[in-house]
Design brief:
The protein contains 15 helices and 5 strands. With 349 residues, the chain is mainly alpha-helical.
Length: 349
């Protein structure tokens, strides 16, 4: 663990402890790209932590980053359908629109206009060095990075700073983006006067659930358990999960990563440990393990899936949630942009 990461971990722990007692001090920004429905990896990796912070009472902003869909795709696919699916998943999972503002990039012009002055504060060399952009381009098989992907860290800074967010839940790999946002805020404040907070990263302690083949869970890889799946659909995909030939089930993340991942899924759903689950299954083999995973997942997500069916049957409600969230985001973004223009001396009448 290097010094900068150690400092981030220590700072994150301090913030996490303070949220429980002083949630009113924090304005959290989080979100996802609408590239399809959410799966259990999303839920345990980030959604559950957002729900925890929402319950504490921290002000919560949730971005549906529709503009970011086109950073690594030549065609937009059904973005509208993906936005509706993502919003439905959010609501079914428990994101409460009375306590959290849910909005889309494309509906908030003032937010995106902040990108222009923010880009003047960052060099091309800094953008090119960002390791997260390089990793995302590599994972998407992109050889030539387009301008939107290159400037993604600064666009994310606008996402966070337009509402003066001061807390962003992230994983370790997203820390460079948060540091870029801190740099943008600091440089703007130094050049034009105190305007923006320098946001902190809240490092997630969430469970890392892999796909059913032992690689990163992804709908495009066909290895995901989607939140919207029925019990039968869940059983069907879990039957295809990769295990091994050893009938004695043990938790060994290095030697048996696929088996250990399935044990982690069960333990997370049941609130126990992978080692305990392995002991209970014993010599039940892969079949016994898959049956336990199916039961655990279907039991845990049954209430969410029931809510999702109800919400899906009321599209007018889903549209109203997004409309109200976009309205609030526009109000805040326009006020921030007005302040930025004033700071920069760009108010002429």
């Amino acid at each position: 663990m290097n010094d900068s990461f150690r400092a981030a971990v220590e700072r994150s722990a301090e913030i996490d402890a303070r949220i429980a007692t002083h949630p009113e001090e924090f304005r959290m920004m989080t979100g996802d790209r609408p590239t399809g429905t959410l799966h259990i990896g999303h839920y345990f990796g980030s959604i559950a932590n957002r729900l925890r912070l929402q319950e504490y009472g921290a002000e919560t902003w949730v971005l549906v980053a529709d503009y970011q869909v086109i950073t690594d795709r030549e065609v937009g696919d059904d973005i509208a359908g993906s936005v509706r699916n993502l919003l439905t998943d959010y609501l079914a999972a428990g994101i409460d629109p009375s306590r959290s503002t849910i909005f889309t990039h494309s509906a908030v012009p003032a937010l995106n206009q902040l990108l222009l002055p923010f880009l003047s504060l960052v060099s091309v060399a800094e953008l090119q060095r960002n390791p997260t952009v390089k990793d995302e381009a590599a994972s998407a098989g992109i050889k030539s990075i387009n301008g939107l992907m290159l400037t993604y860290p600064v666009h994310q800074a606008a996402d966070i700073l337009f509402c003066k967010g001061n807390l962003v839940p992230v994983g370790k790999d997203q820390l460079p983006h948060i540091e870029q946002t801190r740099v943008v805020a600091r440089r703007f404040n130094e050049r034009y006067g105190a305007t923006f907070p320098e946001p902190d990263a809240l490092l997630s302690e969430s469970t890392n659930v892999l796909g059913l083949d032992g690689t990163k869970m992804s709908k495009s890889r066909g290895n995901a358990i989607e939140l919207r799946m029925t019990a039968d659909e869940t059983a069907k995909v879990i039957k295809k999960a990769k295990t091994d030939s050893d009938r004695q089930i043990t938790y060994d993340p290095v030697g048996r990563p696929e088996v250990s991942n399935l044990l982690t899924v069960v333990a997370t759903c049941e609130g126990t440990t992978p080692e305990q689950v392995a002991e209970e299954i014993g010599d039940g083999g892969g079949g016994g393990l898959k049956a336990r995973v199916t039961e655990a997942v279907n039991t845990y997500f049954a209430p969410l899936r029931q809510r999702r069916r109800e919400i899906e049957g009321d599209p007018a409600y889903v549209e109203s949630v997004l409309r109200q969230g976009n309205e609030r985001a526009n109000e805040v973004a326009e006020a921030t942009l007005d302040e930025v223009r004033t700071r920069m001396g760009m108010v002429y009448a």
